[in-house]
C-alpha cells in the first residue's frame, strides 16, 4: 500500500506535517492582516483629529 504525496509538496516526516505547515502559514497571514488593519485604523483615527 503506497501513501499519496502531501498536498503542499515535499516529503513529510509525519502525516500531519504539511497540514501543520499550512496552518502556520495561515496564522502568519492572519497576524499580518490584523497588524495592517490595526495600523490603518489607528492612522485613520489620528488623521480625523487634525483640523
Low-confidence stretches: none
Number of helical elements: 1
Classify the helix fraction into a percent range.
Answer: 55-70%
Average pLDDT works out at: 79
Decide which structural class fits the backbone. mainly alpha
**Order of secondary-structure elements:** H
Shape: rod-shaped
| Biggest β-sheet strands, sense, barrel | none
Straight-line distance between termini: 72 Å
- Provide the β-strand percentage band: under 5%
Question: What is the radius of gyration?
Answer: 20 Å
Number of strands: 0
Organism: Capra hircus
Protein name: Beta-1,4-galactosyltransferase I
Keywords: Glycosyltransferase, Membrane, Transferase, Transmembrane, Transmembrane helix
GO molecular function: glycosyltransferase activity
Report on the architecture of this protein.
It is rod-shaped and about 55 Å long. The N and C termini lie far apart (72 Å). It has a domain at 17-51. It is built from one helix and no strands. With 51 residues, it is an all-alpha fold. This is Beta-1,4-galactosyltransferase I. GO terms for molecular function: glycosyltransferase activity. The chain crosses the membrane at residues 21-43. It comes from Capra hircus.
Compose a concise summary of this entry.
By secondary structure, this protein is mainly alpha-helical.
Key traits:
transmembrane helix; membrane; mainly alpha; rod-shaped; 51 residues; Beta-1,4-galactosyltransferase I
Topology:
Blueprint: H1 17-49
Protein name: Beta-1,4-galactosyltransferase I
Transmembrane segments: 21-43
GO molecular function, one term: glycosyltransferase activity
